[in-house]
Design goal:
By secondary structure, the protein is α/β, with parallel strands linked by helices. The protein folds into two domains: about 200 residues, Alpha-Beta Complex (Spore Coat Polysaccharide Biosynthesis Protein SpsA, Chain A); about 100 residues, no CATH class. The strands form two sheets. Strands 1, 2, 3, 4, 5, 6, 9, 10 and 11 form a nine-stranded mixed beta sheet that branches. The protein has a two-stranded antiparallel ribbon with strand order 7-8. Helix 7 crosses helix 9.
Length: about 325
């Protein structure tokens, strides 16, 4: 008998989490289990979860969305669940979302299925680009092939996990879901689709890298830059093409800092070398507190040293055989 569970990753957003949980309880197709991965929340999340008798939860140190979904999907796989419905704590599904997803999933075990991710305020606009459609009213088919936005109501069959593995916990956030998406759809040639009548409400995303960000608190930029290289390695079959695309991304990012940032341009350009070097040398030990300390103390390498290490790493990437990380994720389960 097929079993379905929801996996929610949360960190310090107890009110939003409870809103998500309530929507899961009201699903027209009942879930067999609700699993919450609590990433070391310091608010009232732990106490609230303890009082919810119908929820299974795992509390762990904060490993970001990457570590949260890695833990959750691995747990679900080991506990023999068939379908894993993954979402963050800041969104929630419409009451018939799971029913419509499972209906669309018939005969599609090896398809990555996703809800239509809709702005939770206006209830009609797609949060991210979904085909050529801007609103739900524009959609003229129930199955939008070739596009999905994990982890926002993403339905994964255990057969996919068996083949692909789990998300890479070492990415922490900002890119972990994209790497997993490309590992499923590009590396393993598994089709993906968005189910239009299965709606997941999510806050609109207003972030733009052109906006002036605060240098001293901009720790997320580290993961944004570092993880992009690993996304490209998964997205492109050619190592050289992945490297060229990443270098173009870094050059464009530096240009955006020069042209659009209003504060701390030199510091931001200097900081940029750190995540790039860590990407090239496969360093994954940076944590948000460590990044913040380095930003506040100004312990960035000199330009000369950074450039020297940068070009050494670049040469290694060009002329040293690559090591596959795909198998690590499969072995994790």
């Amino acid at each position: 008998m097929e079993k379905t569970l929801a996996i929610i990753v949360t960190y310090n957003r107890q009110k939003l989490l409870s809103e998500c949980i309530e929507s899961l309880r009201r699903q027209s197709h009942s879930l067999d289990k609700i699993l919450v991965i609590n990433n070391g929340s310091t608010d009232s999340t732990e106490q609230w979860l303890t009082n919810q008798k119908d929820i299974t939860f795992i509390t762990q140190r904060n490993t970001g969305s990457a570590g949260g979904f890695s833990t959750g999907i691995k747990w679900a796989f080991e506990n023999k669940f068939t379908w894993m419905w993954c979402m963050d704590d800041d969104g929630y599904p419409k009451e018939d979302a799971l029913e419509n997803l499972l209906s669309a999933a018939e005969g599609r075990d090896l398809t990555l299925l996703n809800c239509a991710v809709i702005d939770k305020e206006n209830k009609k606009s797609f949060v991210w680009k979904t085909g050529e459609y801007k609103t739900l009213q524009d959609v003229d088919t129930n199955i939008i092939e070739g596009i999905g936005h994990p982890f926002n109501g993403t339905l994964i069959h255990r057969k996919i996990v068996e083949r692909v593995g789990v998300p890479q916990s070492r990415y922490f956030l900002w890119g972990d879901e994209t790497e997993y998406y490309y590992r499923i759809t590009r590396k393993n040639k598994i089709p993906v689709c968005t189910v239009a009548n299965s709606v997941h409400y999510h806050p609109s995303t207003a972030f733009s890298i052109k906006q002036d960000w605060d240098y001293l608190s901009g720790w997320k930029m580290y993961f944004y830059v570092r993880n992009r290289f690993h996304i490209h390695k998964t997205k492109f079959s050619s190592r050289f093409i992945a490297l060229v695309n990443y270098l173009c991304f870094v050059a464009a990012f530096a240009g955006i800092i020069v042209l659009f940032q209003k504060t701390d341009k030199i510091k931001k350009l200097s900081f940029l070398f750190w995540p790039v070097l860590d990407a090239f040398t496969n360093h994954f030990d940076a944590t948000p507190p460590a990044i913040l300390v380095r930003l506040k103390t100004g312990r960035n390498r000199s330009w000369v040293l950074s450039l020297n290490i940068f070009f050494q790493s670049l040469m290694l990437k060009l002329f040293t055989p690559s090591l596959k990380s795909n198998q690590e994720a499969v072995n994790a389960i």
